[in-house]
Amino acid sequence: MAKKSHIVAIIQARMGSTRLPGKTMMDLAGTPLLNRLLTQLKGSNQLDEVVVATSTDPADEVIARFAKENGYKAVRGSEQDVLSRYVLAADATKADIIVRLTADCPLHSPDTVDEVIAAFLKAKADYASNTSPYTRPDGQDVEVFTRRMLGQAHAAAEPGPDREHVTPWIRRNTTISKLDVLHPLPHCPALRWSVDHPNDLEFARHVWSFLDKRGPGPFNFEEIMSAVTQSGAKQGNAIINEGFYLSIFKQANAEAAPPLTLTKSAEWLERSEQVIPGGAQTYSKSWRHHIRGVTPIFLESGSGAIVTDVDGNQYVDLIQGLLPNILGYAHDEVNRAAHDCACHGHSFSLAHPIEVELAEGLCRLIPCADMVRFGKNGSDATAGAVRVARAYTGREHVAVCGYHGWQDWYIGTTSRSAGVPKAVRELAHPFPYNDHNALEGLLSSKTNQFAAVIMEPANFVWPEPGYLEKVKEITHRHGALLIFDEICSGFHFGLGGAQKLFGVTPDLATFGKAMGNGWPISCIVGRREVMKIFEEAFVSFTFAGDVSAMAAAMKVLDILETGDAYARMTAAGTKLFDGARVMAAAEGLDDVFRLKGHQHWPLFSFVDDKGVDDPATRALWVQEVTRRGVLILTTFNVCAALDESSTTKVLSAFAHAFKRVAKARKLGVRPESWLDGPVPVPAFRARG
Ligand SMILES: Cc1ncc(COP(=O)(O)O)c(C=O)c1O
Questions:
Q1: Pocket residue to mutate for ligand 1, from 499, 513, 515, 635, most atoms within 8 A of Cβ
Q2: Distance in angstroms (rounded) separating the CA atoms of residues 544 and 555
Q3: Can you give the residue ranges of every domain in the chain?
Q4: How far apart are CA 371 and CA 530, in angstroms?
Q5: How far are the Cα atoms of 187, 374, 500, 515, 580 from residue 559, in angstroms, in the given order?
Q6: What is the pLDDT of residue 681?
Q7: pTM, entire model
Q8: What is the DSSP string of 100-148?
Q9: Would you say residue 262 has pLDDT above 60?
Q10: What number of CA atoms fall less than 13 Å from residue 677's CA on the CB side?
Q11: pLDDT for position 19
């Protein structure tokens, strides 16, 4: 019979925390913080041994003594090279399987630990964790790996964050068998139960005082969760994993990144300029939006979160085709669904059952959807929705807020209105977001003439409480229809779109972009009575019923609904969002770096000391980020394929770029003078 593996929890612990020095031995409702974790682990059925790994710093003597006095082994090693401390502890205990835990998790639960170990054993993996993505609160973190993996990491990891945080090298290693353990629902990744700051300590004290009244423990996850809820304890509000971002930041320098070779991009542009006006098919994909000589102009291939340009440079893509690739490029299952469908013909002479199936699925997922019509682009959908609203109400004017596509009815309201007849331009009227009085004023200025209010329910600015409800009330009071343009928010903010997130149901809504993960498809959904107007109003085009894109969309919706894509997007998006903020603050740039919006799609910018938009500093930051292998425009377009190695690469690029920007400011250098190309100027801005 095979020898049973010796499973050892190694708890890293030290007194020298920067944010809460001495926390490990601080009192937590009558006993040291460390002891809470040790006691909880007594409830584990999977662990054979628990060992405390602390440093040789004299201040950590107290930790080693406490462990020994309470019957645990204590191992002491390097303070910074925690990875080597793990090796010492693994050797001292003859561990075959290591469970990595940190002492700052006094609200850990033995069943959580056991679930991850059991999943690891069952999968025969090299590494398993429940942190990628988080489905339990921060502070319930468990990582399990083999002694062999630890040895490999020890041999290969460079000094710095990889050694300080023990497992980044393993987590980035794509050749090993890794398991992401997702705990059963409900998932609660936004909860913070680890102790880093004084207010975290207060929270844990409060919860433990409550738990202690229930008995001696150990307590399982559900019991702790119910204590958290019933005790009314308020969790700390510090950024989760701040230390990790700071250690990546520390590694960065302020030097200029070397230029990329973009020779072939330049050659293709020369050819393109002879035959393609504007140099690209989509306005925001043109070289004019990027720094010439810095950003590639032509891409050749994409896989997951990564794209390769025509010169062979690789980038983590934070544009993702302007949002469609929610699951990442070349997604196998989606492509197979579309391909299989196309193999049996896909532009048919009559309707196809898949249209009905997809429409049924959308009606189930989207609150306002009783019926559906399909299109190819977002602009097909918004134009169709406005056409139907005009036909339904018998009115002509529309109020618009946000960007709604290239067609006459809308684009005439922007500075890119060349070619749009004046008579058409006069029928659409922009109104500002989050200002219901302005909308009221606009609709009152042409009583009984507005067919619709069409708006992005949210983009980078969140609706003020009650705003969307008020918009709906005003719109209906004026006899108009409310259309939510969810081309971007739809699917990126969740399956039911922003209307589900904010609980306001419009009459009609438009979806597109992410719907087919890059396969071209969009739709108009809405209230039956209004949608029936499609039987009269003419909205019809040859490829609207292309079933290969519909097969792709069916698969995308299925993956989004049943898989872990959203959890992965939130995990990656949170890292980029929080990491950028932490690093900007660490460089003293938090007053001039702005980041706002949903974590799956936030907008970043720089402002000057007076708060005025500063495109030159933004361009310098983008130049440095791009040259370190990140393709970026003005937002972080997060996809589910952004894994640990991609997010680490992006965070490292951010760190260098912030340092470079800070250096320019300290030296009084104009950012333009460190730029290798002109600052791109957007030709129009539709979003306020
Ligand atoms: C909110 C919104 N509506 C409509 C559109 C138009 O979509 P498309 O470019 O697919 O025609 C866009 C495109 O970016 C958009 O962001």
A1: 513
A2: 18
A3: 7-238, 263-330+565-674, 347-545
A4: 9
A5: 17, 20, 19, 11, 29
A6: 80
A7: 0.90
A8: EEETT-TT--HHHHHHHHHHHHHHT-SEEESBTTB-S-BT---EEEEHH
A9: yes
A10: 22
A11: 84
DSSP 395: -
* Cα–ligand 1 centroid distance for 295 (angstroms): 24
Written as one string, the DSSP assignment of 263-286 is: HHHHHHHHHHHHHSTTSSSSGGGS
For the domain covering 263-330+565-674, report its CATH number.
Answer: 3.90.1150.10
**Three-state DSSP class for 619?**
helix
Q: Is 456 in the pocket of ligand 1 (CB under 6 A)?
A: yes
pLDDT tens digits, one per residue of 512-550: 999 999 999 999 999 999 999 999 999 999 999 999 999
User: Distance, CA 517 to ligand 1 centroid (Å)?
Assistant: 15
In which residue are the tokens 């062979």 written? Answer: 312
Q: pLDDT, tens digit, for every residue of 67-110? A: 999 999 999 999 999 999 999 999 999 999 999 999 999 999 99
What number does the ligand 1 atom closest to the CA of 489 have? 1
228-244 mean pLDDT? 88
Q: Is 403 in the pocket of ligand 1 (CB under 6 A)?
A: yes
CATH superfamily to which 7-238 belongs = Spore Coat Polysaccharide Biosynthesis Protein SpsA; Chain A (3.90.550.10)
User: Once rounded to an integer, what is the mean pLDDT over residues 321-331?
Assistant: 98
Q: Looking at ligand 1, which atom is closest to the CA of residue 405?
A: 6
Ligand 1 centroid distance, CA of 410 (Å)? 11
For tokens 């510090």, the residue is: 238
Task: Note the pLDDT of residue 148.
Answer: 97
The domain over range 347-545 is classified in CATH as 3.40.50.620: no
CA distance 150 to 375: 52
How confident is the model over 661-682, as pLDDT tens digits? 999 999 999 999 999 999 998 7
Using only the alpha carbons of the chain, give its radius of gyration: 28
At 453-471, the pLDDT tens digits run 999 999 999 999 999 999 9
378 lines ligand 1 (CB under 6 A): yes
Tell me, in angstroms, the distance from the centre of ligand 1 to residue 130's CA: 36
Would you say the CB of residue 454 lies under 6 angstroms from ligand 1? no
The residues with which 143 forms a beta bridge, in sequence order, are 100, 129
Give CA–CA dist 522/544, Å, rounded: 9
E-strand ranges in 630-684 read 630-631
